[in-house]
Amino acid sequence: MLEQLAVDPTAVAQAVEPLQVSQNEAYEYIQDDALLSSSLWANIALAGVSILLFLYMGRNLQSDRAKLIWVATMLVPLVSIASYSSLVSGLTVSFTEMPAGHALADTANIAESAGIPGEGAFSPWGRYLTWTLSTPMILVALGLLADTDRTTLFTAVTMDVGMCVTGLAAAMVTSNLALRWIFYGISCAFFVAVVYILLVEWPADAAEAGTDEIFGTLKVLTVVLWLAYPVVWAVGAEGLALIESAGLTSWAYSALDILAKYVFAFLLLRWVAANDRLVAGGGTTAAAGEAAPADD
């Protein structure tokens, strides 16, 4: 009877651990998929261009508040270029065996195409590191633009970090399919808190600070684009796998990153550079109509 109850520890470890592949194997898998690799290299290139452009755009900023916005915004492409380099190198990707019931639970063909033994779905978990470090900086920049209070800014940032961390959990859980969706729901709940602050709390602060026109544009851009991320997760390989291609899913995320990070940052810095005095004075100059066109 005791022998029947015995469990092979090696078999248990193999059942619960992510598939172990070398960075070289992961790198080769990425490079062999033109769609996948191009989605990563495009972001590396655009992040590099953005860093140089934003350095130039912030060269004449004078006020402390404008400089803080610039620093927060600069960190977005700096984090992105490091993160996407890690992804393309194979450092922050893995091949994960999906739980029973997932559409990609049997993915031997994916692993075999990369010359990797066993089964596993391509999982670029490093994206969540990117979002955990970069999206709070986007919120810091928006909060400073709106001249909000520290409590609301802290709340927005912590809710955002919670959203990213639980999103990572949703992508990495392999023990149970339902738990993946539970973590997905928790992540969405954090996101609702962030959206509430962006749409309800900060617009009034921005109006008082005299930055409501540009804040309104950036607010809509951020909310609309950020809403698309959980949609891509749900229909992509990590969720329902309606789109099984790792390359297509990666390009969807990369396109959103390009718009939500680099285009967002450009619009913000262009306006701040043209309205340094208004940013420095908060709402004191708003009544005088001193906001300038966003020329650089």
Question: Which labels suit this protein?
Answer:
two-stranded antiparallel ribbon, Rhopdopsin 7-helix transmembrane proteins, 2 strands, globular, 296 residues, single chain, mainly alpha
Write the SSE topology.
Layout: H1 2-5, H2 9-16, H3 23-32, H4 34-57, H5 64-89, E1 94-96, H6 108-113, E2 121-123, H7 126-146, H8 150-172, H9 177-209, H10 212-235, H11 246-274, H12 276-281
Antiparallel strand pairs: 1-2
Helix pairs in contact: 4-5, 4-11, 5-7, 5-11, 7-8, 8-9, 9-10, 10-11
CATH topology: Rhopdopsin 7-helix transmembrane proteins
Sequence of strands across the biggest β-sheet: 1-2
Category from helices, strands and their pairing: mainly alpha
Helix content: over 70%
User: Would you tell me the overall average pLDDT?
Assistant: 87
Brief characterization of the structure:
It is built from twelve helices and two strands; from the N terminus they run αααααβαβαααααα. It is mainly alpha-helical.
Structural write-up:
With 296 residues, this protein is mainly alpha-helical. It has one domain (20-285): Rhopdopsin 7-helix transmembrane proteins, CATH 1.20.1070.10. 72% of the residues lie in helices and 2% in strands. It contains 12 helices and 2 strands; from the N terminus they run αααααβαβαααααα. It is globular.
